[in-house]
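Retro notes (design track)

What went well: tokenization of the new backbones is finally stable.
What didn't: we kept losing track of which sequence belonged to which structure.
Fix going forward: every design gets posted as structure first, then sequence, in one message. First example under the new rule, 313 residues:
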């Protein structure tokens, strides 16, 4: 062991350690930083011993100070670093301890137990997190990365291979084909599929989906704008495809304005049909689309719709 704190060193001013959270979620980080600090000052014996060990005593005087006095001074300095960095409830548990080892043992007992419970819950969340079909995959990956980092701070390290498997399993089924292609490509190329590479490829796929989606939506909206025309129902004849104001039947706004047949052409046919007869349901939709109003255009459109028109007699 080297010399401990010297007379001119202000121990608490040399380095700061994080505040220990009430729930103990940062205990591993806190624990490691405190140990690192004590080791850097060659006074980590205080964590493991409640009195000066033999090797410490054999150093004799250091800077004119006997080992017993040095030990006592270092104990006080370490307590002054730890006490303001822990929650009030924890301080009430350790304030009666006479030495640093007793303080540290109690803190480990309290927070390692809390950490185990937190880590178990966090691990369940980490492994069971799923991305929905309409969720943002970029945000989903960021959430998983954050959970992984939290687990690491609790001493639960997730290997890159396990992390890649968790990422793959967390995606919606719509990405099954992409995941299969990525895995096969890596296998055929004899390359290790890392989490970073997998994330990058899936995010590229997600971006492509996002770019295509607005175009698809705009087409659907355009189609939807025209669709209601075929759902119009006439209150006069109860047929669909037009309104009363455009109805050719009796009582309609355009009564008697329907197309007339060529009388010379069909004189020998049954004349029982009346002028009130109107084209059937599916013919009205075809009529609605005609802008020039000519007989030739109307007949052509109606025939394309497969209508059997009842011509006025």
């Amino acid at each position: 062991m080297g010399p401990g704190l010297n007379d001119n060193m202000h121990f608490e001013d040399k380095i700061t350690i994080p505040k220990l959270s009430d729930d103990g979620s940062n205990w591993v980080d806190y624990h490691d930083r405190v140990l690192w600090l004590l080791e850097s000052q060659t006074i980590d014996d205080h964590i493991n011993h409640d009195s000066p060990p033999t090797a410490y005593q054999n150093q004799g005087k250091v800077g004119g100070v006997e080992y017993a006095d040095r030990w006592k001074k270092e104990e006080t300095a370490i307590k002054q670093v730890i006490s303001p960095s822990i929650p009030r409830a924890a301080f009430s548990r350790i304030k009666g301890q006479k030495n640093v080892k007793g303080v540290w043992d109690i803190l480990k007992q309290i927070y390692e137990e809390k950490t185990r419970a937190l880590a178990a819950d966090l691990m369940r969340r980490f492994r069971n997190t799923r991305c929905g079909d309409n969720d943002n995959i970029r945000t989903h990956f960021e959430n998983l990365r954050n959970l992984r980092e939290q687990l690491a701070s609790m001493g639960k390290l997730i290997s890159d291979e396990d992390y890649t498997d968790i990422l793959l399993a967390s995606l919606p089924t719509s990405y099954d084909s992409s995941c299969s292609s990525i895995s096969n490509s890596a296998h055929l190329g004899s390359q290790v599929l890392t989490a970073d590479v997998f994330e990058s490829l899936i995010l590229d796929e997600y971006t492509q989906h996002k770019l295509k989606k607005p175009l698809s939506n705009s087409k659907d909206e355009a189609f939807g704008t025209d669709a209601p025309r075929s759902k119009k129902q006439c209150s006069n004849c109860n047929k669909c495809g037009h309104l009363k104001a455009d109805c050719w039947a009796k009582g309609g706004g355009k009564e008697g304005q329907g197309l007339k047949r060529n009388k010379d052409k069909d004189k020998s046919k049954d004349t029982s049909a009346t002028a009130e007869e109107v084209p059937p349901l599916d013919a009205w939709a075809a009529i609605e689309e005609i802008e020039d109003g000519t007989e030739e255009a109307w007949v052509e459109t109606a025939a394309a719709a497969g209508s059997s028109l009842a011509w006025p007699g």
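Added context from the reviewer: Confidence is low (pLDDT under 50) at residues 1-13, 221-230, 271-278, 281-313.
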